[in-house]
Amino acid sequence: MIFTVAVDGPAAAGKGTISKALADRFGLAHLDTGLLYRAVGAKGGDPVAAAQGLTPADLARDDLRSLAAGEAASKVAAIPAVRAALTQFQRDFARREGGAVLDGRDIGTVICPEAAVKLFVTASAEVRAHRRWLEVGGDAAQVLAEVVARDERDMGRADAPLKPAADAVMVDTSELSIDEAVAQAAALVAARLG
Ligand code: CDP
Ligand code: CDP
Question: Which Pfam families match (predicted)?
């Protein structure tokens, strides 16, 4: 069975949390595509060469979740040759036998436009920045500024900008608990699985 769930949306909206829960519940493989861009940004040097030569060890670095790694990721993610180098791996993952859920920015629009379910997970910038601040700490105003700046860069780039696919279902998690957000997403997937 090839069954792809595409989960896109801005930073700290809950994409990863929802995607992992869907993967567990429905027995799907999960790929956090943001990790690929974070690893390219963290590797330094020529980003295109980094993307072409990405290794499992690059993806296992323990500094990939920081704000700085997120910012570096969104800078290299605006380079078309970096995106191109990462496309086939993501497409193959999306089409794997047994089904998959991928979360990122362009899964429903570019990587897998034929996905069976497309979710656009969002929340207000204030809620998202607060969630990220709970994870990383530091100066809350600075976390908000970095989240907003990164979203603007992701929405404003020419290649594969962050935007909902025409057929994506919006899941606004601003006022939802994790359980409520997962339940909404799971109901949409269950409806498609029949
Ligand atoms: O993957 P993405 O950056 O979109 O977000 P995430 O890592 O899944 O979620 C960011 C943080 O928000 C995590 O600490 C989640 O536990 C939390 N979260 C939440 O508090 N309420 C939700 N409805 C969803 C996520
Ligand atoms: O977890 P969070 O939403 O904060 O970020 P992420 O999903 O790890 O993505 C980090 C950065 O990688 C994003 O800000 C995007 O610039 C880039 N990205 C992308 O361009 N396309 C994707 N499919 C996934 C991430």
Answer: Cytidylate_kin (PF02224)
Report pLDDT for 90: 98
**22-28-31 Cα angle (round to 5):** 85
For residues 104 and 34, the answer to whether their CB atoms sit within 8 Å is: yes
- Given the candidates 3.90.25.10, 3.40.50.720, 3.30.420.310, 3.40.50.300, the CATH classification of the domain at 4-193 is 3.40.50.300
**Which among 79, 78, 93, 84 has a CA at the least distance from the CA of 33?**
93
* CB of 30 closer than 6 angstroms to any ligand 1 atom: no
Which atom of ligand 1 is nearest to 103's Cα? 1
Sign of CA dihedral 16, 67, 151, 107: negative
Question: Which amino acid is it at 193?
Answer: L
Helix (H, G, I), strand (E, B) or coil at 122: strand
Tens digit of each residue's pLDDT (9 = 90 or more) over 162-184: 999 999 999 999 999 999 999 99
